[in-house]
Amino acid sequence: MTEATLADTTPIPRRRIVSWALWDCGSAGFNTIVVTFVFSTYLASNSFVAPAVVAAAGDDMTNAALVAAKAHNASVVSTALTIAGLLIALLAPLLGQRSDGTGKRKLWLGINTGIVIAAMLGMFFVAPGQSYLIVGAMLLALGSVVMEFANVNYNAMLVQVSTPKNVGRVSSWGWGAGYFGGIVLLVILLVLFIQSFGVDGHAGVLGLDSSIAGGVLNVRFAIVASALWFALLAIPLFVNVPEIPATGPTTARLSFLASYKRIGRTIAQLYRKNPQVLLFLGASAVYRDGIAAVFTFGAIIASQVFGFTQSEVLYFAVAANLVAGTGAFLAGRYDDRLGPKLIIVVCLAGLVIAAVAILFVGDAKAGFWACGLFLSLFVGPAQSSSRSFLARVTPPGREGEIFGLYATTGRAVSFLAPLLFTVFVAISGNTRFGAIGIAIVLAVGLAMMVRVNPRQKAID
How many CB atoms lie within 10 A of CB 57? Predict the structure, then answer.
């Protein structure tokens, strides 16, 4: 077996492409349900606010003590994710590098996928109450770290399931599958666990008693169902996508210091021979952090600022994923035709506009719906085109190292958006103004991306 690369024009079996995309579809169980719409929102809800504060506030969502307590919870979550980002920045390139040439890329993807699923199952035991907030935040951080490690190897597999003529489309199919997988999963969770069907005190068609476990047992079961969803849809990749062959001397036996020296040489080589690649890595580091913050804190803003209920958050999630998935699928064709830079720049401009607009739409839920759906249109294409951009300039046999570096540059500044979100929330005492921090990060990433030359040389 020879190493699959984008220089190889041999048609890829459709079954292999579909199996690869299904992993992304399954990962919606973590990315969509845990990070964005259910578990992070659960951690920021009244369930983790002192009962006395909740009782004193009653139905007044603007009660100062309640708003401050919820802002504190949001800060705890953002702090945990900041620490997670630092760990990713430190370890991702090393782990990605060690998967190159070893014939173990799929093996490590499997190990990391299993750890993420285990962390999700552990979230079932995060009961409501202040004493469980840090435990929940730690599980969220653990899942985020290991999920990023999994994504390094998953993204590196893009060259194994695409050719130069369709790399943009295949990348977009993966992202699109993730979004549409999120839609299907959200609908399943709404029907089974979340939505009330006219039976007081019970949720979902399973009729879970809302008097049990502080009224959030349905949320915790939804996380378990999401973990099983991920496990099921990950299986086809491990069955149908072949493992990379071992290609001689391996970096797996290098010491940590030697591994980082090798990474340093790679960066120096990029600086000498193709600094535009480094500029792209820097730009994408910044704007991808802003995009990640949109996912992480969007649902928190919806629930705390606009008063969305758990069901309303999930209704919005279904619509947002539909729009984002459609955008990703459509952009893939233009990525191969017009190049990924144009797609990225247009999408970042749209994201900045939507983030700023959140500040001016009042408290009406319709305003959040409009801004959120407009924003969702641009998220998928920006992410998909970033992946295809880098795949085009990655040398054969070094996908793990380069995509690990991609993860590191993305996480080297991953504290920026959570930090700025936390700062603006702390200054204002209002979660809404955290959107300013997100908008700033996206705007800086856009300004950097404009300077990137779309005509890249392949890395030697």
Answer: 18
- Residue 275 and residue 412: Cα distance in Å, rounded? 18
CB of 25 closer than 8 Å to CB of 177 = yes
Q: Which amino acid is at 114?
A: G
Are 288 and 410 a contacting pair, CB within 8 Å? yes
Q: Give the separation between CA 206 and CA 218, rounded to whole angstroms.
A: 9
Tokens standing for 246? 């071992």
Tokens of 262: 């090798």
Spatial CB neighbours of 9, under 8 Å, sequence gap ≥ 6:
163, 164, 165
pTM of the model: 0.80
Cβ neighbours, 10 Å, residue 191:
13
| Domain boundaries of the chain, sorted by first residue | 19-237+256-450
Cα separation, 181 vs 436, whole angstroms: 30
Q: What is the pLDDT of residues 311-344, one digit of tens each?
A: 788 788 888 888 888 898 888 888 888 889 999 9
Beta bridge partners of 102: 246
Cβ neighbors of 447 (< 8 A, separation 6 or more) are: none
Q: Rounded to whole angstroms, how far apart are CA atoms 27 and 177?
A: 10
CATH (residue range 19-237+256-450): 1.20.1250.20
